[in-house]
C-alpha cells in the first residue's frame, strides 16, 4: 500500500484520479475538491446559520419543507432521524419527490403563516425542486401576498437561476455554498448545516467531529480511518466483491441512504464500482454469493448482530468493523467522503462526476415534449397489471417476471425502482420479495424510490458493471396537480421519469422490466402475486 496517496489527495493532486493532468477530467476534478476544507471552512458560517434558525423559531414556524434532491436533501434526512427535532424547533419534512400524493397531501396540510420552505439545489435548476417551488410559491403568495418571500430560504451555488429567483421573489435568506463542492459531498456544507440548524441540531459538534476525522485522515499510515475504509471498498470491488453490504444499527439506519448515494454515484461508472446494499436484514453465510463485502458500524448506543457478523467472517466473507459516536455524525460523513475518494483512486475512476445521470433526464424531457407517457406496448397484461420488456416474455405478467428472475447469475443483483406512492405496506412487500430472491438465488438487491434514486444509485445501475436486473414499478395516480408555467402535471412528470429511466436502462443493455398498475389495483397484492409470494394475512 502506497501511503503517499494520502498526501497527494490533500495536495489536490488530480492525477490521483486521472492519468491526464491537463485533460477535461482533471479540470473538472480540480473544481470538486472543496469538501476537503469544509470541516474547518464552514465554522465561519455557523453564526449566520444559527441566527437565521433562531429567527425562524421566533416567528412560530412549526413546519419546514425541504425541497431538494440527492445531496441537497439526504444529509438533512439523516440529521432529522439521528438527532431528532429539538423542543421548540419546527418539524422538517423532506420533499425529494414528484409524487402526486405526497405533494397534494402537503398542500392539504399547508398552514401558510406557520410554514417555511427551504429550497436546496446546487445547480439551481433541478426539475423536481424547481417544480415544487413554483407550486408552493403560488399557494403561499395567494395566502400571504408580498409577505410570502419571508417564508422561503434558498441554498444554492453562486450565480444560479435559484439565486436569481430568490432575489427576485424576496426570499428571507439566500445561502450561497462554495461552488467547488459536489452535491453528494456537501453534507457538511450549507446544504447540511442550514436544515440541521433549523431543527435545532448540534451543528457546531457536527463540524468539530468532522474536523477531528479530517485530521485523522491526514495520517500516512494504516491508522488513517478514511484510508482503511476506502481501500476495503476499492480492493474488494476490484476483486469482484462489489456488493458493499453496509450493516447499520437502528440508531443509524437512515445513514444508509446517504452512503448509498455517495458511494454508488461516485464509483458506479465505466463498468466498475461498489454497489452499497444498505437495508437488507443480516442473513446466514449460505444466503450470500461471493460478491459481498461487509462494513458494520457500531455506535455508543447500539450495534449490529456480532454473532452473525462473525459467522460471515468465518465463512470467508470480508468484514470491516467500524465504530462511531452518535454525537460524532460529522466524523462519519467525512470518513465516508474521504474513503470514497480513496476507492475511486483504487478503481481508477473519477469519483466526482456522474456521466450517465443526464441521460435519463434527457429521456424524460423528450417524453414530456411528446406528451406520450405510455412507454410503448406491454409484453403481457392481466387484471390491470401491465409489464414491458424487450428482453423477457411470457403469457402473463407473472411469467415475464419469473423469466427475468431465472436470468440471475451468481454476481448479479436486482434493483427495485419504485415510482409508487410511499407506503410502509409496499416497502414491506418489496422487502419480503427481496428476501425470497436472496434465499433462492443468493443475489443482492436494492430498493430505490423514484425519482430520488435517479440522483443516487441511478448512476451505478447504468454505468457500473452490467449485472443489474431492474424492475421499474409505476402506477396510475388518483389525482393530477398542475405544475405552474408547465404544460404537464406532477403525475405526468413522474410517469415520464419512470418511462425515461426504463428506456435509459434498456439503452445500456440492462435487463429491465417495467411494471405498471392501473388505478384500482392494490400494489401490495399485485406485487406479491407477480413475484409468487403468498398473500399476506
Helix content percent band: 40-55%
Provide the spatial order of strands within the biggest beta sheet.
10-11-15-14-12-13
Largest sheet: 6 strands, mixed
Cα gyration radius (Å): 23 Å
Cα-to-Cα separation, first versus last residue: 54 Å
The DSSP helix count reads: 20
- The general outline is globular
Share in β-strands: 5-15%
The count of DSSP E runs of length 2 or more, i.e. the number of strands, is 15
Unreliable segments (pLDDT under 50, ≥5 consecutive)?
none
Secondary-structure-derived class? alpha/beta
Mean pLDDT across every amino acid position? 96
Can you describe what's shown?
The chain has 537 residues and is an alpha/beta fold. The chain has 20 helices and 15 strands. It has helices at 4-10, 24-30, 38-41, 46-58, 74-83, 100-109, 127-144, 161-169, 190-198, 203-216, 225-238, 255-267, 306-314, 329-347, 357-370, 397-406, 424-441, 458-463, 490-507, 523-530; strands at residues 63-67, 91-95, 115-121, 152-156, 173-176, 243-247, 275-277, 292-298, 319-323, 380-382, 385-388, 413-418, 444-449, 468-475, 511-517. The strands form three sheets. The chain has a six-stranded mixed β-sheet, sandwiched between helices. Strands 2-1-3-4-5 form a five-stranded parallel β-sheet, with helices on both faces. The termini are far apart. The mean pLDDT is 96.
Main attributes?
single chain, 537 residues, alpha/beta, five-stranded parallel β-sheet
Could you give a short description of this structure?
This protein has helices at residues 4-10, 24-30, 38-41, 46-58, 74-83, 100-109, 127-144, 161-169, 190-198, 203-216, 225-238, 255-267, 306-314, 329-347, 357-370, 397-406, 424-441, 458-463, 490-507, 523-530, and strands at residues 63-67, 91-95, 115-121, 152-156, 173-176, 243-247, 275-277, 292-298, 319-323, 380-382, 385-388, 413-418, 444-449, 468-475, 511-517. The protein is α/β, with parallel strands linked by helices.
Amino acid at each position: 500500500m502506497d501511503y503517499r496517496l494520502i498526501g497527494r489527495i490533500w495536495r489536490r493532486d488530480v492525477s490521483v484520479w486521472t492519468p491526464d493532468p491537463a485533460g477535461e477530467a482533471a479540470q473538472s476534478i480540480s473544481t470538486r475538491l472543496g469538501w476537503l476544507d469544509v470541516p474547518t471552512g464552514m465554522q465561519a458560517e455557523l453564526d449566520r446559520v444559527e441566527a437565521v434558525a433562531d429567527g425562524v423559531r421566533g416567528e412560530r414556524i412549526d413546519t419546514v419543507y425541504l425541497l431538494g434532491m440527492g445531496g441537497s436533501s439526504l444529509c438533512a434526512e439523516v440529521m432529522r432521524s439521528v438527532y431528532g427535532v429539538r423542543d421548540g424547533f419546527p418539524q422538517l419534512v423532506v420533499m425529494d419527490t414528484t409524487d402526486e400524493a405526497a405533494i397534494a397531501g402537503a398542500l392539504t396540510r399547508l398552514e401558510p403563516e406557520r410554514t417555511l420552505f427551504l429550497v436546496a439545489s446546487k445547480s439551481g435548476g433541478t426539475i423536481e425542486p424547481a417544480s415544487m417551488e413554483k407550486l408552493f410559491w403560488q399557494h403561499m403568495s395567494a395566502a400571504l401576498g408580498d409577505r410570502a418571500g419571508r417564508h422561503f430560504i434558498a441554498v444554492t451555488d453562486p450565480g444560479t437561476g435559484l439565486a436569481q429567483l430568490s432575489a427576485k421573489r424576496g426570499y428571507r435568506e439566500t445561502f450561497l455554498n462554495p461552488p467547488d463542492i459536489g452535491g453528494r459531498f456537501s453534507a457538511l456544507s450549507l446544504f447540511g448545516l442550514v436544515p440541521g440548524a433549523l431543527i435545532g441540531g448540534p451543528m457546531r459538534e457536527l463540524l468539530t467531529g468532522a474536523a477531528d476525522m479530517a485530521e485523522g485522515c491526514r495520517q500516512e499510515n494504516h491508522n488513517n480511518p478514511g484510508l482503511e475504509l476506502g481501500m476495503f471498498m476499492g480492493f474488494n470491488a476490484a476483486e469482484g466483491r462489489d456488493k458493499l453490504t453496509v450493516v447499520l444499527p437502528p440508531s443509524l439506519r437512515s445513514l444508509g441512504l446517504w452512503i448509498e448515494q455517495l458511494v454508488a454515484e461516485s464509483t458506479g461508472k465505466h463498468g466498475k464500482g461498489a454497489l452499497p446494499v444498505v437495508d437488507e436484514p443480516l442473513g446466514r453465510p449460505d444466503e450470500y454469493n461471493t460478491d459481498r463485502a461487509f462494513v458494520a458500524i457500531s455506535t455508543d448506543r447500539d450495534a449490529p448482530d456480532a454473532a452473525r457478523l462473525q459467522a460471515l467472517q468465518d465463512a470467508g466473507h470480508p468484514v470491516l468493523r467500524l465504530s462511531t459516536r452518535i454525537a460524532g455524525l460529522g466524523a462519519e460523513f467525512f470518513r465516508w467522503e474521504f474513503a470514497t475518494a480513496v476507492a475511486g483512486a483504487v478503481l481508477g475512476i473519477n469519483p466526482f462526476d456522474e456521466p450517465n445521470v443526464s441521460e435519463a433526464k434527457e429521456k424524460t424531457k423528450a417524453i414530456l415534449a411528446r406528451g406520450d407517457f405510455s412507454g410503448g406496448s406491454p409484453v403481457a397484461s392481466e387484471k390491470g397489471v401491465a409489464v414491458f420488456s424487450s428482453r423477457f416474455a411470457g403469457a402473463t405478467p407473472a411469467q415475464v417476471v419469473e423469466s427475468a428472475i431465472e436470468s440471475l447469475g451468481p454476481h448479479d443483483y436486482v434493483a427495485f425502482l419504485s415510482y409508487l406512492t410511499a407506503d410502509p405496506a409496499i416497502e414491506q412487500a418489496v422487502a419480503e420479495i427481496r428476501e425470497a430472491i436472496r434465499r433462492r438465488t443468493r443475489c443482492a438487491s436494492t430498493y430505490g424510490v423514484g425519482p430520488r434514486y435517479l440522483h443516487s444509485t441511478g448512476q451505478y445501475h447504468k454505468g457500473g458493471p452490467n449485472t443489474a436486473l431492474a424492475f421499474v414499478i409505476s402506477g396510475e395516480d388518483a389525482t393530477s396537480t398542475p405544475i405552474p408555467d408547465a404544460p404537464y402535471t406532477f403525475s405526468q412528470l413522474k410517469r415520464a421519469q419512470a418511462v425515461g429511466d426504463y428506456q435509459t436502462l434498456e439503452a445500456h443493455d440492462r435487463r429491465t422490466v417495467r411494471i405498471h398498475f392501473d388505478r384500482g389495483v392494490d400494489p401490495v397484492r399485485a406485487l406479491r402475486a407477480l413475484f409468487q409470494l403468498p398473500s399476506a394475512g
